[in-house]
Amino acid sequence: MKVILRQDFEQLGRIGDVVDVKEGYARNYLIPRKIAYQATQSSILQLEEEKKQQAKRSDKEKRHSEKLAAELEKVSVTIQMKVGEDDKLFGSVTSQMIVDALKEKGFTLDKRQIELEDTVKALGIYSVDAKLPGGVVAKVKVWVMRE
Questions:
Q1: How many CB atoms lie under 10 A from the CB of residue 18?
Q2: For residues 136 and 69, is the Cβ–Cβ distance under 8 A?
Q3: 13: which DSSP letter?
Q4: Are the beta carbons of 68 and 138 closer than 8 angstroms?
């Protein structure tokens, strides 16, 4: 059965691709979950309209993310940790700690959006990436200080 993908699907392809799948897979999984349409002339027109709407939504989302990224670049966050000998931390700074500190400043992010390159186990100043929707990456300055 030929179907047209409504959204990117890792195993099959990208939006708008016409793929040939087994009939049961299409009827029981892809079509009910609105991942694909049956390939007909009217569904092709419907998909084109959805592409236009998706492009508008993604453009709006990207502009919002860029504005948020500009605000995040101006913010620095202080996290206080207990310190042992040689200024080594008891534990490490987690992405959840950074999200909580950002929440106090008025920013709402998910901990999965914070990307720590290395584990933070020492005092200092770190630059942390925050991945925002639309492929925008913001740098957040994190100060790790003694409690």
A1: 14
A2: yes
A3: B
A4: yes
Q: Give the β-pairing of 136-146 and 76-81.
A: parallel
Query: In angstroms, rounded to a whole number, what is the distance separating the alpha carbons of residues 43 and 87?
Result: 63
pLDDT tens profile 59-89: 999 999 999 999 999 999 999 999 988 878 8
At 7, give phi and psi (nearest 5°).
-145, 165
Over range 99-114, report the average pLDDT. 93
Q: Which CATH architecture has domain 2-61?
A: 3-Layer(aba) Sandwich (3.40)
Architecture of domain 67-146: Roll (3.10)
Q: SS3 for 34? A: coil
> Which two three-digit tokens encode residue 52?
């236009």
Domain range annotation of the chain: 2-61, 67-146
Question: What SS3 class is residue 131?
Answer: strand
Q: Tell me how far the alpha carbon of residue 136 is from its chain's centroid.
A: 9
CB 12 within 8 A of CB 19: yes
